[in-house]
Amino acid sequence: MKPTVLLGTRKGFIAYHFSNNRWQVENLSFEGQPVSIAYADERSGTWWACLDHGHWGVKLHRSKDRGLTWEEIKAPAYPEGKEIKEGIPATTRYIWSMANGGKNFLSRLWIGTDPGGLFLSEDEGNNFHLVESLWNHPTRKEGWFGGGRDQPGIHSIVVDPRDENRIHIGISCAGVFETIDAGKTWIIRNKGMHADFLPDPNAETGYDPHILVAAPSDPEILWQQNHCGIFRSTDGAKNWVDIGQPEGPAKFGFAIAVADDDAEQAWVAPANSDMTRTAIKGALCICRTDDGGKTWKELRKGLPQENCFDIVYRHALASSGNALVFGTTTGNLFFSPDRGESWQVLSNYLPMIYSVQFTN
């Protein structure tokens, strides 16, 4: 297990560290400010805080000393004249995802934003530029739309460690796109998915993958917790299969995590339908599959089983070795040392939790 957990919350950046057999708060930064993503670039140890100031816009900060000091970096900005649709100027409304470029591109960073723009830095984040090829994709203006937010958003960036020019991204609402040339060209990867909220449930775009992740032990296997189910691909997103439970709890939710050492094992955090977005029957559970989604097990030991309204946002569930951690919309933080078989409370008194990440 990596010994540090970073949290992005509604009221600040929080770091927990595990030592002497207990979790303790190591750092609190940006107190009172919404942190949409708390991210650690493990190649350099740099911590990043993506801030959402609402009226004042987005801000981007980095720390090279584990949060003791922070440096503000110019946030990704759309070039003048870019439009979401005709007559609607494009501005960065939210930073929704961040990923590093891998061991062969040590200065490369990717950022995904609302309104659906992907940004690239080749100088460790000092400067970001819009990936024009995706922004100019012929499906974007008419085939992409907001899912939970007014405009489309890129919430998932999955860099293939075997070939870091190959990247999958998840867009709500558009679906999954793949590039094999570091963003010069793009391929739509929505085959096998369905969107029951569209007039044509098998349209080319318009799908809502809530989160997209790859199996660390086999990056050819990708998983997504989707608005319309749980989907899995074993061929690099060329084809998707719905593996959710038609009648069980593992079907609707936002977060998903895959085991480091087993491409068949994954966890989801179920929620009630998109109409209510609360814990199912007032009880919080995590569901785990050990066989690639053929079967699911409900994990409840140590989690509240009555009068619970918590759900887990898309970036707020993570695994590391045998350990899992997740944070909820009402500020509860839970930790499992045994792959979800039992849970411990780390805190009941945090702000709404947007993201969690294990790091060193």
What attributes characterize this protein structure?
four-stranded antiparallel β-sheet; mainly beta; 2 helices; 30 strands; Methylamine Dehydrogenase, Chain H; 360 residues; 2% helix
Walk me through the structure.
The structure is a single chain. This protein is mainly β and 360 residues long. It has a single domain (72-359), classed as YVTN repeat-like/Quinoprotein amine dehydrogenase (Methylamine Dehydrogenase, Chain H, 7 Propeller). The protein has helices at residues 132-135, 140-143; strands at 4-9, 12-19, 22-29, 35-41, 46-52, 58-63, 71-73, 83-85, 88-89, 94-100, 109-114, 118-121, 129-130, 153-159, 167-172, 175-179, 187-188, 209-215, 218-226, 229-233, 241-242, 253-258, 266-270, 286-289, 297-299, 317-320, 323-327, 333-336, 344-347, 353-359. The protein has a four-stranded antiparallel sheet, with no helix packed on it. A hairpin with a 7-residue loop joins strand 28 (333-336) and strand 29.
- Total number of helical segments? 2
CATH fold-level topology: Methylamine Dehydrogenase, Chain H
Distance between the termini: 9 Å
Task: Give the full name of the CATH homologous superfamily.
Answer: YVTN repeat-like/Quinoprotein amine dehydrogenase
**What sort of overall outline do the alpha carbons produce when their principal axes are compared?**
globular
CATH level 1 class label: Mainly Beta
- Integer count of domains: 1
CATH-derived architecture: 7 Propeller
Radius of gyration based on Cα positions: 19 Å
- Helix vs. strand class: mainly beta
Beta-strand fraction estimate: 35-45%
Taking strands numbered 1, 2, ... along the chain, how are they ordered across the largest sheet? 3-2-1-30
Let me know the largest β-sheet: 4 strands, antiparallel
Number of DSSP strands? 30
**Spans with pLDDT under 50 lasting ≥5 residues?**
none
| Overall pLDDT confidence | 97
